[in-house]
Amino acid sequence: MPASLVSEVKKLPTTARLTNFYSKVMLEGEEQFSTVTIEATAPPPTAIDYPEPGTCRVTLRAILNMYPGPLYVQDGIVREVTVEPGDRQVAFNISLDEAVQATLTAVEGVPYRIVLRFSRRPLQEFYRDKLIILDPGHGGTDGGWRGPVNLWERDMAWKTARELARVLEGFKARVIWTRQAEENPSWQERLRKVTPATFCFISVHEHGATDAGQRGTAVLYNPASRGNEELAAKVLERIVARVKTPARGVKADEELARLGEVPGLKLEPVAITNWVDEGLLRNPYFHQKVALATAVAIKQYFQRRK
C-alpha cells in the first residue's frame, strides 16, 4: 500500500464499539454504591441527563456491538437498564427505585470502562438502627425437611438467614438471631427475642411436601398485624422476580400471630423436596438474591405506607 494511502487510513476517526454492560453493588468504606459499567473498545463521547425523576439516561457516540438487553437489576436502587441503539449513538436508560443521581468515572485500559455510581444511602437511611429479629427455622438435631439428594431445611434456612443478616447490617439495621447454628429453641423461646422496639420478625424455612412435584416460593404472614398480607405479597413478588421461581402465594400463619402487632414474615424460598428447587439451594447466589429481594421489598412497602 502506498505510504500516502496508509497515512490517510490512519487519519480516519475510530468510532468506539460498545462490547458489554453490567451492574453490581460496590462497597467503599462505609458507603455502598449501585454501579452500571459500560465497556468499550475506545473512549466514546458521553453525555448524561435525567429526563424524569427516577430515570438516568447515558448517551454515547458509539456503535453497539453486543446483546442489547434489557438488564434486570432490582437491587433496591437500579431497577432495570434498557438500551436504545441509533445511528452511531447508543442510549442507556437506567430506571431507578430512588431518585438519586450518578457520578460518572472513566477507567482507562482494555476494555475502556464508563462507570456510573449511584449511592445506596436511601436504603441505609431507611434501615438505620431498626431492630430485625432473624429466625432460621429448625436447628440442632431437628433438620426439618430433607431434599431428594441430601440437603436439609435447617442448613438452607441458616444460609439464607446469614445472607439476610449481611444485607441488613450493611444497611445499618440491628439484627438479633433467635438461635445459633447448632441450637433448636422452642417457638416460645424464639419469640422471647421480640421486644417493643422490634421493627420486623423474619423466619426462614423451606417448603416440604410428600408430592415431589410441588415447587416454588411462598411467604407466610402475621394475620394479627395490620397490612402484613400486603407486605407478604410485596416480598413474594420481589423474590419471584429476582430468582424466577413459581409463586405458591401468601397465606396467614397462626404461629406468627403470636407476635401481636409486630410485623412478621415466614419465607419459604423453595420446596426443598423438589429436585429442581433443591438444586437452586446449592447456588450461593440464590440465597443472596432472596435476601436482597426481601430487604428491598420490606423497605419499599413501609415507605409507600407513609
Features:
alpha/beta; Aminopeptidase; 16 strands; 2 domains; 306 residues; five-stranded mixed beta sheet; six-stranded mixed beta sheet
How would you describe what is shown here?
It is a single chain. By secondary structure, this protein is an alpha/beta fold. It folds into two domains: 11-119, Immunoglobulin-like, CATH 2.60.40; 125-305, Aminopeptidase (3-Layer(aba) Sandwich). It is built from seven helices and 16 strands. It has helices spanning 3-11, 121-127, 153-170, 187-191, 228-243, 275-281, 284-305; strands at residues 17-28, 31-40, 46-52, 55-60, 63-64, 71-72, 78-85, 90-96, 102-107, 112-119, 131-136, 174-177, 198-204, 217-221, 247-252, 264-268. The strands form three sheets. It has a six-stranded mixed sheet, with helices on one face. α5 (228-243) links the parallel β14 (217-221) and β15 (247-252). α3 crosses α7. The longest helix is centred in the C-terminal third of the chain and has 22 residues, at 284-305. It is elongated.
Q: Topology of this structure?
A:
Elements: H1 3-11, E1 17-28, E2 31-40, E3 46-52, E4 55-60, E5 63-64, E6 71-72, E7 78-85, E8 90-96, E9 102-107, E10 112-119, H2 121-127, E11 131-136, H3 153-170, E12 174-177, H4 187-191, E13 198-204, E14 217-221, H5 228-243, E15 247-252, E16 264-268, H6 275-281, H7 284-305
Parallel strand pairs: 1-5, 11-12, 11-13, 13-16, 14-15
Antiparallel strand pairs: 1-2, 2-10, 3-4, 4-8, 6-7, 7-8, 9-10, 14-16
